[in-house]
Amino acid sequence: MNPVQGFHGCYRRIDLSRGTDELIPIDPEVLTRVLGGVGLGTWILHREAPLGVEPFAAEAPLIFAFSPLVGTGVTTSAKFAVLGKSPLTGGVCDALASSHFAIAGKALGIDALVFVGACASPSEWVNGTLRPTASWGRSAEQVAATLSEEGRVAAIGVAGERRVRFATISADGRHAGRGGLGAVMGAKQLKAVVVRGTVETPVADPERVSELAADLRRRATGASTAKYSELGTIGNLLSFDRLGVLPTRNFQQSHFEGAERLAGERWRAERRHRRASCAHCTIGCEHRYGYRTGDGEEAQVRVEYESVFALGPLCGVDDPDRVLAASRRCDELGLDTISAGATLAFAMECGERGELEGAPRFGEGDRLVEWLDAIAHREGLGDRLAEGSLRLARSLGGDAIDRAPQVKGLELPGYEPRTMQAMALGLAVGTRGADHNRSGAYEADFSEGADRLRGDARSVRLAIESEDRAALLDSLVLCKFVRAAFDDLWAESAALLSAVTGVAFDANSLRAASRRVVELRKAFNLREGGRPEDDRLPRRFLDEPIPSGPAAGATLPAERLAEMIRGYNRGRGWDAQGRLDERALDDLAEALGLDARILKSDRASRGAGQAGSRG
Amino acid sequence: MGRPKAWLPWFGQTMIEHVVGKLASWMDEVVVVTSAELDLPVLPARVVRDREPERGPLGGIRDGLAAIESPLAFVTSTDAPFLSALHVDALFDSGGACAPVAEGHVQVLSAVYPRTATEQADALLARGEARPRALLKALDFEAFDARGGDHQEGGFAPWHGFNTPEAYLDTVRAVDPGATAEIELLGRAALHVEATRRAVPVGTLGEGLRALPKELGLVEKGRVARAHLVSLGGRELVRDLGVPIGPGEQISVLDALAGG
Q: Which residues of B touch A243 (CB under 8 A)?
């Protein structure tokens, strides 16, 4: 038995080219040092990804990582992480989804499922059997319906098949959405992964786990999560508008005149509404709203702020039926709504400027679905949009790159950096690119007395803290919506993890583990050619003041952001350029049994670069 | 005061927009001297950052004078909504340093200073002097008798200002006894009421929130409840119930967990 309970102590490595299937043991010490989920997945990525491998190459790994809390009944713990090399950024990509897939996958008696190689023809992997698929060309939802009797399903839609660089992997209707790992799966011609295990999770102290889980469940009911259970993330939209942080028309404004039409507060009174929960979750943040399809029929779609912001205000669209239909279409096609909306919005601005012939236009809600189909099927101009905003900007040349809404190739989420300057730092330094899930620096901006229009040393400190907290939650894995239920995230997580694993964790050891996970991600980007100048925001945010609305005149001077980035690197113990020193890399290699030569490889100095890092 | 005077609402504008707007309609150039930390709205003025605020008001006046091109400058504080063109013109008519004197007080922040006074200001600052009055004295300023009411607006002297929330609110109520602010409920709070926008009389934030249905639970232990956060004019985020909310102000009650 694995001495660290809560884990199985191995991962399953399936080579789709060679047809091999093997169990790879994981050193128990490593498990205590990187935990599970994103931490474990990043460690496997370091081991399995050949140096400089292209994201779509057969050799590139696709990793489904589970975590120690999966299967314990702790609220919101039924989550899994998918990792690989992002076809958008060329760096580390870790995307999470909540699903029964996590429970069924871990019950295979493994801590991760790793696919390398590629299938010779479209296939599906079903509980250890690789077989041709009849589902190529269908939506992930349709695939899941077809295969549900055989287990829990993670699948890609048409966008993944066509290698759209922001394609998702879907499970139970939730998406491992950001960074394009659906396209990596598509490049392997792997349509679906189906799992149904029967191995129970070993737990060190079941009674204590049960007691702690009940306590957390109690605290996660009520005020600490009421925002999510009563209204959901769509509640952000109107508040963000009033604060001047709602990105509008490709970040040209931060206030949308049509915001009220897209407000969840208003929809609750006007639209059919249903609430649901993810697997093993007591919060129930999922809010589904009715809308009229183009054919006049009534349908329902799960609504999140990020989807509505990206397909609504960012594209200048205020018709709720059109925005909800577009969100639903993204789900069906397997498109990341943020990157899809942001790439469309960028194309719209380029069209307005006469830089892109035949481009979509701001406000054309009735054509959103048509454009999403063109992207997913790579038809016409959709083929160029399927490459994401960075590559589209490069193909246009000139100063288009200054307006492409991306960092390292990943499109920005719905937070205006000029009016949320702690978040601006989090977006600039994120290893996954512009990211609101790996940095919760927005909490610093939205705290009492914070000056969100003037980032400073406090913003830096809070941005680092939020990144560490996110690394912990993403490695345990727990949903971030439960964060306010903890009085002391570090100590309480340590108690929970100790009871599950039988290893004596404390707040300090978890802080160390979280920092290690952040460093592992950074080290992966560095070994793959990441450069200091990748930590930046597009020039638009540094040159143009907010023109109107409650935050009119707000600016983010380049030097202020640069100073915050220097402070961030100092705070992390990295050099001024954001590099880990040799000793830190040696320590990381030794602690985690990784090849120090590869960790210390500096491809950037040899002229190589991340796919997404070159402006 | 609990919030920057520059951002206090004044009947549809911020205080600084109101004051600078007046000055810009009378003057060839307007320079605003402010601390390095304070953001300002877009203004028809040049903004100079006071790099050494510890020097006190004299240091700020010195930096402002160094920035102007005109030979004479009218200097005012931010919280002077009743400035009048008559008052400013009368001071300029003296042709040199000139300040109103009322009830024995020299109004040093409603006075005219010559651009060339920077040298005297530097000398005073070097001696550790921080009071503008010392500069006026060094300039042998002309005292303007301001006892008459010709330059008053609504019964208030041109230099009338306020240093406490109560003084600010008293002034607002004197100008318009029916003045109101608007509170908009957003997020969860909006789900529990029929009308999400409410006009409330100007007052403290606490008075405004207590005018809303108690079952919303917006106030807790003398502060804005932990589940909520309040935005003033879309900029400041506060929980202090003592801050004043002014005429025409837009107040938003948000979920505390905004984001995510």
A: 231, 234-235, 252, 254, 258
How far apart CA A410 and CA A362 sit, in angstroms, is 21
Residues B184 and B123 placed together within one structural domain of the fold:
no
| CB spacing of A223 vs B226 below 8 angstroms | yes
> At residue B156, does pLDDT exceed 60?
yes
pLDDT at A611 over 60: no
Among A228, A480, A552, the residue with its CB nearest the CB of B42 is A552
DSSP string, A242-296: HHT---BTTTTBS--TTGGGG-HHHHHHHS-EEEE--TT-SS--EEEEEEE-TTS
| Count of domains forming chain A | 1
* Residue B128 belongs to a domain: yes
Q: Does residue A604 surpass a pLDDT of 60?
A: no
Domain assignment present for residue A492? The answer is no
Give yes or no for B194 touching A (CB within 8 A). no
| pTM of the predicted protein model | 0.94
B1 to chain A, closest Cα gap in Å = 14
Q: How would you classify residue A63: left for phi > 0, otherwise alpha for psi between -120 and 50, otherwise beta? A: beta
Of the pLDDT bands very low, low, confident and very high (cuts 50, 70, 90), residue B193 is very high
Interior/surface letters B108-117, b for 16+ CB within 10 angstroms, e for the rest: bbbbbbbeeb
pLDDT at B53: 78
Rounded distance between C-alpha atoms, residue A390 and residue A49, angstroms? 24
State which of B127, B161, B195 marks the end of a domain. B161
CB contacts, 8 Å: A450 with chain B: 237
**Structural domain for A116, as ranges:** 10-195
**Arithmetic mean of pLDDT, A553-561:** 94
Domain that holds residue B220: 174-255
* Cross-chain Cβ contact B255/A449 below 8 Å: no
Q: Which CATH number fits the domain that encloses residue A43?
A: 3.60.9.10
Q: Does A291 touch chain B (CB under 8 A)?
A: no
CB contacts of B233 in chain A (<8 Å) are 550
Please name the member of A238, A448, A549 whose beta carbon is closest to the beta carbon of B229.
A448
Which of B137, B161, B185 terminates a domain? The answer is: B161
Shortest alpha-carbon distance between residue B239 and chain A (Å)? 7
Same domain, B26 and B111: yes
The answer, for A484 touching chain B at a CB cutoff of 8 Å, is yes
Q: Which of A76, A240, A243 to mutate to test the interface with B (most CBs of B within 10 A)?
A: A243
Contact B237, A453 (CB under 8 A): no
Quote the pLDDT of residue B42. 85
The rounded distance, in Å, linking the Cα atoms of A253 and A548 is 7
Note the ipTM here: 0.91
pLDDT of residue A434: 97
pLDDT tens digits, B87-127: 999 999 999 999 999 878 999 999 999 999 999 999 999 99
**Confidence band of A615 (pLDDT split at 50, 70, 90):** very low
Is position A527 within any domain?
no
Question: What's B157's domain CATH number?
Answer: 3.90.550.10
Q: Is the pLDDT of residue A37 over 50?
A: yes
Beta bridge partners of B240: B223
Same domain, B152 and B224: no
Q: Name the domain count of chain B.
A: 2
Q: Is B166 among the domain residues? A: no
Stretch A66-86: mean pLDDT = 95
Q: Is residue B260 part of a domain?
A: no
**CATH number for the domain that contains residue B221:** 3.10.20.30
Q: Does B233 touch chain A (CB under 8 A)?
A: yes
Dmax (CA) of chain B: 65
Nearest CA to CA, how far is B206 from chain A (Å)? 16
Which residues of chain B make contact with A223, given a CB cutoff of 8 A?
226-227
User: In terms of domains, do B129 and B211 share one?
Assistant: no
Q: Same domain, yes or no, for B139 and B190?
A: no
Q: How far apart (Å, rounded) are the C-alpha atoms in residues A12 and B107?
A: 81
Same domain for B103 and B222, yes or no, is: no
Mean pLDDT of A478-506: 95
Q: Which of B41, B227, B239 sits opposite A223 (nearest CB)?
A: B227
If you search the block for the tokens 């931490």, which residue do you land on?
Answer: A39
Name residues 320-339 of chain A within 8 A of B (Cβ).
Answer: none
CA distance B94 to B145: 12
